[in-house]
Specification:
Elements lengths: L13 H21 L17 H23 L5
Helix pairs in contact: 1-2
């Protein structure tokens, strides 16, 4: 029995891992878009924290990334 080759099987197929990496990259992009907008002086309020990029675009990008990763996990490549 020890002479038999044991082939290690991965949980997902290669396509699933590619889609998963794309989803993770989209999530990271969303968090990068969300960053910044702070003020150097704590006594001065910076309105840039409420711009379109941080309030609408970045959270939407993160949610799309989560959707892509969920799709990658649930995709069955054997069909």
């Amino acid at each position: 029995m020890k002479n038999e080759e044991q082939k290690q099987e991965f949980l997902f197929e290669k396509v699933n891992y590619k889609i998963l990496l794309i989803g993770i990259a989209v999530i990271v992009l969303g968090f990068i878009l969300m960053s910044g907008g702070g003020s150097e002086d704590p006594n001065v309020f910076n309105e840039d924290i409420f711009n379109f990029r941080r309030i609408r675009l970045a959270p939407t990008t993160v949610l799309i990334g989560f959707g892509i990763t969920i799709y990658a996990i649930l995709k069955n490549p054997k069909k």
